[in-house]
Specification:
This protein is of the alpha/beta class and 243 residues long. It folds into two domains: 121 residues, Response regulator (Rossmann fold); 100 residues. A five-stranded parallel sheet has the order 2-1-3-6-7, with helices on both faces. It has a two-stranded antiparallel sheet with strand order 4-5. α4 links the parallel β6 and β7. α7 runs antiparallel to α8, α7 packs antiparallel against α10 and α9 packs antiparallel against α10. The longest helix has 28 residues. The radius of gyration is 18 Å and the shape is elongated.
């Protein structure tokens, strides 16, 4: 077991003092250990160290910029990211999801609203010692399994090239279905992704999708999104080495 299973840290980025205090209290009641930042500069300093936050709740309107900038710059250091705002429009919600947030939340909010958007620490990817996670033995890609399924290396490389194009689409649609709480569409999309991951030997992604389906828990989709990002980072390098 690694220390990640005990991680309860959440980065709370909120400029309003009263809102910050209320959210901190609500988060602690849900089992989180909030680390507070009042602006983008504070948030960047919190993220400059080696520690990884299990989740983040980020206000989009900050005195020194937009919270929309944080996911692209710090995706590797934060697990589940939720955007918060007092005013939401369909366009603004779409911008947040496309920027890399996995969910959105309106303020003011109840503790139940927070739990629906974030879940509890023990429900997050890698928190269950019996559930495989990023520290799982499953490789990002299992070449042997893929070649067994497809017959030869050329077929594997061809399908993985298609996967590079398809994974960003899967990622955007997963975020959209999560934001809309559309369980039917989410389940159908995960079923398709499971097949694509299996044929291309995307072992860790395949494992992550299976975990969501087994638990029937949308809160675990964050791990699927993480594995999609890892695949996209790995595939270009893998193809370069094969030439």
């Amino acid at each position: 077991m690694t220390t990640v299973h005990m991680n309860r840290s959440i980065l709370l980025v909120e400029d309003d003092l009263i809102t910050r205090e209320v959210l901190s209290t609500q988060l602690r009641a849900l089992g989180w250990e909030p680390v507070v930042a009042a602006n983008l500069g504070d948030a960047s300093r919190c993220l400059a160290g080696p520690d990884r936050f299990l989740a983040a709740l980020i206000d989009l309107e900050l005195p020194d910029g937009s919270g929309l900038d944080l996911p692209a710059r710090h995706a590797a250091q934060i697990g589940h990211m939720v955007a918060s705002s007092a005013e939401w429009t369909p366009r603004k919600r779409d911008q947040a999801l496309r920027a890399g947030f996995s969910a959105t939340m309106a303020k003011p909010c109840s503790r139940e609203d927070l739990e629906q958007a974030l879940g509890r620490p023990e429900q997050q990817p890698n928190q269950d010692p019996d559930e495989p996670g990023l520290d799982s033995a499953a490789p990002i890609f299992d070449d042997v399994a893929a070649e067994r399924a497809l017959g030869n290396t050329a077929a594997v490389e061809a399908l993985r090239a298609l996967l590079v194009d398809e994974l960003p689409v899967y990622r955007d649609r997963l975020r959209m279905h999560l934001a809309e709480a559309d369980q039917v569409a989410l389940s159908a999309l995960l079923h398709r992704l499971l097949s694509a991951a299996g044929f291309t030997g995307a072992a860790a992604l395949h494992e992550a999708v299976l975990a969501v389906q087994a638990q029937a828990s949308p809160s675990r989709v964050g791990r699927v999104l993480t594995e999609i990002d890892r695949c996209l980072l790995t595939l270009p390098r893998a193809r370069t080495r094969s030439r």
